[in-house]
Every structure is written in C-alpha cells, then in structure tokens.
Amino acid sequence: MELLGYLVNALTPLNILMALGGVILGTVIGALPGLSATMAVAVLVPFTFTMDPATGLIALGAIYTGAIYGGAFAAILVNTPGTPSAIATTFDGFPMAKRGDGSLAVTLATLASVVGGLVGGVFLLLLSPPLAKVALAFGPPEYFWLAIFGLTLISALSVGNTIKGLLGGCIGLMLAMVGVAVVGGDIRFTMGTHMLLGGFDIVSALIGLYCIPVLIDLVATPDPHLKVEQGNRGIRLREAFGIAWESKFNVLRSSIIGTVIGVLPGAGGSIAGLVSYSEARRSSKKPETFGNGAPDGIIATESANNATVGGGFIPTLVLGIPGTPPDAVILGALLVQGIKIGPTLFSQQGDIVYTFIFGLLIATALMLPAGLLIGRYAYKSIASIPKTLLVPTIAFLTVVGSFAIHSNLHDVQMMLALGVIGWLLNRCGFAPSPIVLGLVLGQIAEQGFVQSYLIGNATHNLAGMFFGRPISLAIVALAAFTLLYPLVFSKRKENAKKRALDAARSYADSQGSTTVGDVEPVAKSGFAPLAGLKKQLAKPRDHAGMFLSVLLIGVAVWAFAETSAMTPMGSVFPSTISVAIIVMSLMLLGLNILRKPAGPEQGGDADNSSNARRVALVIAMVVWVAVIPMVGFGIAAILAFLILGRVACYEHMSAKRILGEAVGGLVIVGGLYLLMAEVLLIRMPTGALF
Amino acid sequence: MRKLAIAAAMAATLVSTQAFAEYPEKTINYIIPFNAGGESDVSARFQQPYLEELAGQSFVIQYMAGAGGAQAWSQLNGMEGDGYTIMGINLPHTILQPMEKDVGYETKDLTYINFFHYTPNALFVPKDSEFQSLGELVEYAKANPGLVTLSGSGSNSANHLGQVQFDELAGITTTYVPFSGTGPAVTAILGSQTTGGFNYVTSGVNNGDGMRMLAVASEQRVKAFPDVPTFKELGYNIVGGAFRGVAVPSSTPEPIREKISQLITDVNNNPEFQKKMEDAGFVLTDISYDFINDFVAAKSEEYREIAEKLGIANR
C-alpha cells in the first residue's frame, strides 16, 4: 500500500507536465536520426538541478523513453533508424510504409512501445534487486555468445543469399575493428589517418547505410516516396489493436527479452530489438513474411526496445552501473545532486525512487496519445510533402544527424562514403542489414571473446569459460536452434516459400526496391545443401558479385597482413574475420564461375530510373559536405537545399511554388539549426559566413 | 634573479590584466572531450554553478567525444582563443596518446591551465572475496602467478598503468583484463568475473557495498574512504590515477589564461564545492597555471617510464 502513496506523489500536475513534455520532446529528438536520447538527456540535466529530484528524474526518464520510441518513426517512414534501438524496425516498418500501411505501422509501433515500456517499468518497480543480479551473472563469455546469437540473425535476413549475407556481416565486423582497440590498445586499419582513430560511429553508419540509398533512389524516379493509402483510414487504431492482441505472446515475450537485455550494461536497445525480432521470426507461423512488412516484426522490436528503458534503470539504480548511455548521464545527475546510489537507495530514498518509477510509467502511458498524434502528423507530412522538399529535407537530416553525434565533420564524411558504398553493395545483392549487424555486434563479440580468453587462460579453464557456464550454454543452444531451425523444418519452409512467392509478387507489384525486404523470393534457404547448391548454380552469373569478391579478397589480404604488427589480443578477431572473408569470397567466385554467363536480358535496370539524377545527388552532397568548413554550416545547407530540390524535381513548377518551397526550406534549415545550436548546445562548424 | 623575473612577470600581468579586466563578458563554452555521464562530465557539472556565480556568466557544457578524447584535443588549437572556449583535459591521456601514436596533437602543443582534481586508482575486490587485505592478495598472487585477474577500463589507460606498477613493485604477475569503460569494468568486479580490478575511487562511491577497496593510490587517504589504506602506507610507492583540468586554445592571451586558472582555483576553495566533490570520491588538487607546465613535464617523465615497460612508448 505504501507503493500507492508514491503513485499519488507522482501524480502532481508538475510531474505530469514534465512527463508529457519529456515524452513529446524525446519523441521528436528520437525521430531525427543522429540526435540521440543521450544528447537530449544531457542537455536537460542542468535544468533538473533546480527541480525536486523525483521531478527531475521523471523529466529525464520521459525524454529517454520518448526518444527510444521516436526512433521508430524514421525507421518506418524513411527506412533509417532514428536511434540504433530501431534498427530492426526498418526491416518491416519501411516495407509496410511503402505498400501504404505506414500509419498502421506507426500505430503498431506506438502500441508495442507503450506496452513494452510499461512491462519494463513494472519490472523496475517490483523486481529490481533480483534482476540486478542478472547483470552481474553476465560475464564476458555471455556477452560473446549473445553477440554471436545476434549475428545468427544474418542467416535469417539473407535467405537465398546466405554467402552474401555472411560476407556482409563480415564486412560489418571488420568495420567495427577500425580505430583504437579497447582490448589491446592497437591502432587498427586507420591507414595512418586521424579521422579513423575513433572508428566508424554506429549512428553515422546507420544513417549512411540506410538513408543515403533511399535518397539516391528517391531522386531517380518521379514516383512518390510512400504509397498513399486508399481513402483516409486515420490512424487505424482498431486494426492495430486487433493485430497486437493476436500477437499478445509476441508482445509479452519481446517485452521480457527487452527488460532482461536492458538490465545488461553494454547490450542495450539495439541488441534487445534484434534478439526479439529473431525470436519472433523463429516462433512465427509465417516467418517468410518477416522482412517484407510483417507487423509482428515491428511489434517485437518496438516492445523490446522500450522495455530496455525500465530494464536499464535497474542496474543504474541498484548497482550504480549505467545500463545504457542515457542511464550514465542520469547517474551522473544523481551524483551531482548528492543522491547515493546502491541497494540502500530503494529503502532509504524510496520516496524519490518510487515516485520516479511511477512517473516513468505515467510518461510511458502518455506516449500513447502523444505518439499517435505525432505519428499521424509525421506520416501525413512525409507522405504528402512534395519530393522537391522531401529530398533536401532528408538529405539535410542525414548531414545534421551525423554531424551532431560528435560535433565532427568526419562523421558526416564517413556517413556519406558508407552510404554511397552501401548503395552500390545493395545493387550487387549485399543488403545493408548484415553489415549493420556486424558493426553493432563486432565490438561486443570481440571484447567478450578476448576477455573470456584472458580470464580462461589465466585460470587454466578455457573450455569451462566458453562452454561450462549455464547462461552461456543456454544462449548457445538458442543460437544453434535459430540457425538449424530452417533445416529441421524445411518441409514447412517449402510450403511457406510458395506463400512467400505470392506475397513477394504482390509486394513487387507495389514497387519495392533497395530495402531489407528485397530478398529474392524464389531463392532457397542455403541449408538444404545439395538442392540449394543446384538452385544456386542455376542462377545466371553475377558479374558484380564476382568483381566484389575479388575486391574483398584484396582488402582481406591487406587486413590480414596488417594484423601481423598487432598484439595477439588485438589481432585474433580481425585475422579470423579476414580469413573468413577470403574463404567466402572464393566460394562466391567459384560459384559464379560454375554458373552460365548471364543472358542479354540480365542487363540490370531496364526501368525508367534516372542514373544521371542519382549521380547528381551524390555529387551535390559531396560538394555540400566539402564546402561546410569554408562557407559555414547554415549557408551550405541552404544552397544544398535549393540544388537538391532541383535534382528531385520532375514537373514544371510555378514561381509561386518555388518561392513557397524555398521559404519552407529556410524554415526547416533554420529550425533544425536552432534546435541543434541553441537547444541541444551542439558546437556548429563556423565558416566564412554562418 | 629569479625573484626579479617573478616580479617582472607579476608587473606585466598586472598591466595586461587591465586590458582584459572585463573578461568574461559572455557565455563560456566548456567542452568535455568525452561522453556525458563520465567522471569528466560529472566534475564539470559540479563546477558549473560555482563558476557561473563567480564569473557572472553562464558556462555551457558541450560534448565532443571520440578516440578517447583525442578527437577534441587535436582540434583545440584551431578554436577561437578569446577565452570563451575552454576544454576539459586529462592526464595521463594527453601524455600517453601522443607518446604511443600520432593522434593529431602533441603533449606540448596543448595549453594547460589548471588541474583541479584527480581520481586516484584503487584496487577493488568483490564484497564476498576471500581477500580481506592487500597483503593477502599479494601472497596469493605470489603463490599463483598469473591466476589473479584484474579488470580495468581499457588498455594502456590509467587503470592499466596502475596494474603494471603494482605487479612490478609487489613482484607478482597478475592478468589485466581490459573492459570498454569504467562501468563494465566495475560490473566485472561486482559479479566476481575477475578476482578484482583497478578502478577509480569514484567507482567505490557509486557502487556502495558491492566491492571492497583494498588500497588506494593517493598520497593521503581519501576523505570518502578514511579506513582504506594507501599503497604507500602498505609499502608500495604507487600514486596514480587520472588528473582532470582545463585547457584553452594556444592563441588565448596570457592574462585570460591566468583569469581562468584563478576562477578554477577559487571554485576549488569553496568549502561547499569541496564537500560535494570529496563525498563523490574526487580528490581536489591545486595545480594552477603557474605550475602546470612543470607538473606536466614531471608527469611526462613518470609516464614514459611506465609506458616503456608496457612497450607503448613508440614516439
């Protein structure tokens, strides 16, 4: 009953206002790729010092949970995760939006996020001390196996294209190795530049790999970005409720996975989303729809990532170990306020903690109306905004977002380079998601492996370290199950494939390209060896793939040679990956040599898309990024805005419309500039002008 | 001669200070070269209200994380040297990084202003560890070379240096296990994944009763932990940890440099600020602008010796 008293404490008008304001601000920040929850929380910390501690915490928690939820908007509407937590939301969210179900996807994401957040919050309220023990039971081997488990998702994401998927994963893992190594301290693959010392930032890679290809293809055709729904069906709340209710087990399972993974410091929302996605796909009756716009994919990811918010607070408040980066900021704020963290916090300062937890729950519940409203507006504006405005706006967001991460133009350059490379790779059949998975999980896998090895070697118990710990074994079993599942149930898959074919056909009719869902439907899972091989060989020769294999072999040989100068700790992972790349590239090459040469009809895109415009967009963006240090951020953005608007223009525009859009561009650029420079206090580059 | 020089310098300062008497006249940007939430951020947050009160201007904390701080430090001298941009700076980072590799700046290129605190290294074991004292741990490590695993934040970091020194002075071999930050390194201790670990004293404050601090690498006992002996008391001459302070772009005029240093020293003298910092496990230092170059030079020598043992003194 004491708890209810705290609930009443949490219900003051000020607290509710903070919860609502926090959620709205967080959602907007989270929806803008590159602007993160950490940033928003850090900026607000000083303001909370003037508030009552519980109220301040509620504001910070609300922003945090709002930002994690907001990440879904960008994922669904522009195929770019707004935060890394929403990576798996792009898999099905964007295909749904493309086929005209954008508002349904947003509503589903909202429902799932609210339920996930509530589940995480209730665990935080009732089970914090025991769950904190989970964080401590997770040692290096568990993190290693968890990362490997996450990587098994690649095989599911690249059905029919397994070699390319695995190669993509290895490319991502290799990218994760670049920079100063945490374990060993080696400087790896920087080619002597300062720019690469910090490695590839995950957020800037996400923006590049997911968003730039969308932009490039957006200007290539006059078709609208998203298919507009027939008739105004509103937010489709009832329909979404129905779907979510049918998937209640998925919601619950994903929320619990999210909470538990949130408890683990160093895992976080992205891994929670990926693991729940993988589990949802495995236990689904229609796994083939995953990646082609399956509502269950969105539900799984979104409920899991919002559950990590509550889960992440558990080690933060109980142990003083931040579960996630925003938690670290909040922990610092508590420290500055003089609040002692630790197991005694719950008993001695229960009024603060429990009031805060109830406030977080209230904020999460408020996300439902607030999110539906913002989501409706976001969907409408993305779907109805003319391309001449949409293209420069998204382009501006990619530049702003990748810059904001570290107030550094290097990240923008890397974002753009990775984006163009990602587009080319996608054209050759390498989807971006395996690369991203490798990049996200590479560090965790490497650190877990090397730490386990060091400890196991020191205690003369290597085998026991990797294979003798119960939690590790459970994760290994799950990973094996996920991998072998398609093989064991191949019969069921065979039938499913037929359905997938139909689904994919209708999907292809509805205009789908360059998305994760772009797996070849006729292809066969690579697990039934002989039949699979035959099918593989029956495909026409893939010249781009062959060229890339040769290129990759070259890069991998160079990388392998580089590892000889590293410490054993720093070289074990990169050398293993380079060997894997060489072996798989040779397989791909061999496969293609055995194939028949491509027929003349295999010329690629005989469609009406304009490569000239694609090139123009890339050139415009490269020039844009290059001139920022010279002319300043603002002026470069406005000029680029006008030019990109022309690149994306397919119709004759009246003077009035041109003027209107120019003003619109000014407002967008100016607004975001102010948001970054004045609200988020990011250092903007200054040039000759502004 | 020396006295004369000091007098001359003081006179010069007096004159030139007049010209900048009004400083500061606008908001000062305080850049932290790490992510929010770390020790650098927290200590700057502690300073913020006091700095604002003394200077009568607001201090805006901005973050420029990347490459262990190197990304921000390598850009520092390119920023405007008008006194309205100051940057957090850390030792041993700014000594070890350029010693090991070309990171875009050199230790001597940076304009250090004032180191206002440090977080001493400390050796922790889990609460239910069999080791009650440092002596017991050393004995066990002697009998079982390599078997003792110690976690820490990163390779070639302050924590790592502490472990290397400890091994050498105690004549033992322990295994250092690097983690990706203070948080994960502490988690490994709390969960008994490693025998113990080197970490900053501040971690001991945060993590309550989960860990036992066996010894601390400071000159005197730390106020937040009066019962924990120093390494020196126990016969090991290990004093180390991370120093944190403020630097400015090299184009910043001398009088402004001194004013900033004075501001930071004044904040350090505020009893309320002292209490807050010490409760959180920070140890205040007063290495102001006049002494700072000698201090950095002395530390550089000290760290070079350890770096050579680690085999990372490449430059």
UniProtKB/TrEMBL annotation, chain A:
Segments traversing the membrane: 16-45, 104-131, 143-160, 166-184, 196-216, 256-277, 352-377, 389-409, 471-489, 544-561, 573-594, 615-643, 663-682
Keywords, comma-separated and alphabetical: Membrane, Transmembrane, Transmembrane helix
Keyword Membrane in record: yes
Pfam families: TctA, TctB
Keyword Protease: no
Protein's name according to its UniProt entry: C4-dicarboxylate ABC transporter permease
Domain spans labelled DUF1468: 549-685
Taxonomic source organism: Thalassospira povalilytica
From TrEMBL, chain B:
InterPro entries for this protein: BUG (IPR005064), Bug_dom1 (IPR042100)
Family statement: Belongs to the UPF0065 (bug) family.
CDD domains, A to Z: PBP2_Bug_TTT
The protein, known as: C4-dicarboxylate ABC transporter substrate-binding protein
Keywords per UniProt: Signal
Superkingdom of the organism of origin: Bacteria
Species of origin: Thalassospira povalilytica
Gene3D superfamilies in the cross-refs: Bordetella uptake gene, domain 1 (3.40.190.150), Periplasmic binding protein-like II (3.40.190.10)
Biological classification of the source: Bacteria, Pseudomonadati, Pseudomonadota, Alphaproteobacteria, Rhodospirillales
Signal peptide: 1-21
Coiled-coil segments: none
